[in-house]
TrEMBL record:
It catalyses: ATP + H2O = ADP + phosphate + H(+). Keywords: ATP-binding, Magnesium, Nucleotide-binding. InterPro entries: AAA+_ATPase, At3g28540-like_C, ATPase_AAA_core, ATPase_AAA_CS, Mitochondrial_chaperone_BCS1, P-loop_NTPase. Residues 105-258 form the AAA+ ATPase domain. The lineage of its organism: Eukaryota, Viridiplantae, Streptophyta, Embryophyta, Tracheophyta. Gene3D superfamilies: 6.10.280.40, P-loop containing nucleotide triphosphate hydrolases. GO terms for molecular function: ATP binding; ATP hydrolysis activity. This is AAA+ ATPase domain-containing protein. It comes from Lithocarpus litseifolius.
């Protein structure tokens, strides 16, 4: 049995009011805050449903969440960062507000940007900032919408539910309408294909509507205080229904490393606030797309002998190389494009020649017609002339 511990307070009766009204309340609130602060946060990962049955089995496996990322270590534009922090604070303190406006206490974030720009780091920073658990939902592991619902009902409040690379998880992209049309066309040609597909679909599919229901549905009102995060490298591929405001309330672009983001990394990795090489780096980063992950990798000292200056020089070389590669790539792309255009032009000319040839043939034939027509006309004129 849990040991019950207590403290005995002795005080003069003149302090009775202060003690009962203020002090005890303060102690209770501090106690709760300490419990929250010391709570070990967890990272949950969903189990495939064949492992759900049996003794002690669960839908989610968990490990202790110990990612060190924070908003201080996150390299991005400071105003943008501040905006996100304020948004999170407003959300986490918004219980009454959400109740007042009649909305479930949840918020959706869409994080998009190229690989290595810090989407995962941002999620970790959010969880650390708010002291929330993370549910890393692997959609392809869920067999269908019912399983998805059962998984979500088991999530607890004060949590971030993450679906990474949503564009790869399922066929939830803007392509679905085109694909449906294609399928319809195929079915018209081969009705048997419909049946085969039906079986396939029922064996494993979380659908777009299932996912939308997951975001909007009634379940999300149970317990509240949940953040839903989708990440993607290709925001333009996603179905607009999935990311419209109200579902994904805040869209956050994680972009290539700018000078401000670089300064955060330089401070974190090298403990340097300013350096004469900063101006060169600022200039180079303006012209070159480099992810914070690449910048960080170059800034990290690889041996005891590498000091801040060596690492900054290393970074300058890396950006220059990246710039050269980008230029070469752009030139190659331009060359291929020009080649393609030239080929298309030639094909069009050949097509024109063919058209000209067949036209010439027609003209020869039509020429005969014209002669014939002329004859007819001549006759008519003659006749008219006679009539006249
Ligand atoms: N904005 C950033 N601030 C600080 N570190 C970053 C940032 N972006 C990337 N990094 C560093 O690069 C590593 C990879 O970044 P991260 O996994 O967060 O990127 P990602 O955008 O989620 O990539 P992917 O799309 O491939 O999952 C991180 O561990 C971190 O060290």
């Amino acid at each position: 049995m849990e040991e019950k511990r207590y403290y005995k307070l002795t005080f003069h009766k003149s302090h009775r009011e202060t003690l009962c009204e203020k002090y005890i309340n303060h102690v209770l609130q501090e106690g709760k805050a300490i419990t929250v602060r010391n709570r070990q946060r967890k990272l949950y990962i969903n189990n495939p449903s064949q492992n759900w049955g049996g003794y002690r089995s669960t839908k989610w496996n968990h490990v202790t969440f110990e990612h060190p990322a924070s908003f201080d270590t996150l390299a991005m534009d400071s105003k943008k960062k501040e905006g996100i922090i304020n948004d999170l604070i407003k959300f986490s303190e918004g219980k009454e507000y959400y109740a007042k406006i009649g909305k479930a206490w949840k918020r959706g974030y869409l994080l998009y940007g190229p690989p290595g720009t810090g989407k995962s780091s941002m999620i970790a920073a959010m969880a650390n900032y708010l002291n929330y658990d993370i549910y890393d939902l692997e959609l392809t592991t869920a067999k269908d919408n019912t399983e998805l619902r059962r998984l979500l009902i088991e999530t607890t409040s004060k949590s971030i539910i993450v679906i990474e690379d949503i564009d790869c998880s399922l066929d939830l992209t803007g392509q679905r309408k085109k694909k449906k049309q294609q399928e319809k066309d195929e079915e018209k040609k081969d009705p048997a294909s419909k049946m085969a597909k039906g079986e396939e679909e029922s064996s494993s599919k979380v659908t777009l509507s299932g996912l939308l229901n997951f975001i909007d549905g009634l379940w999300s009102a149970c317990g509240g205080e949940r953040i839903i995060v989708f990440t993607t490298n290709y925001v333009e591929k996603l179905d607009p229904a999935l990311i419209r405001r109200g579902r994904m309330d805040k869209h956050i672009e994680m972009s290539y490393c700018g000078f401000e983001a670089f300064k955060v990394l330089a401070k974190n990795y090298l403990d340097v606030d300013s350096h004469e090489l900063f101006a060169t780096i600022d200039h180079l980063l303006e012209e070159t797309d480099m992810t914070p992950a690449d910048v960080a990798e170059n800034l990290m000292p690889k041996s005891q002998n590498e000091d801040a200056e060596t690492c900054l020089k290393k970074l300058i070389e890396a950006i220059k190389t990246a710039k050269e590669e980008a230029t070469k790539k752009a030139e190659e792309e331009a060359r291929l494009k020009a080649e393609k255009e030239e080929k298309e032009k030639q094909e069009a000319t050949q097509e024109d020649v063919k058209v000209d040839e067949s036209l010439a043939k027609d003209v020869v034939e039509n020429g005969v017609d014209v002669v014939k027509d002329d004859k007819t006309l001549g006759n008519e004129v003659k006749e008219n002339g006679v009539t006249a």
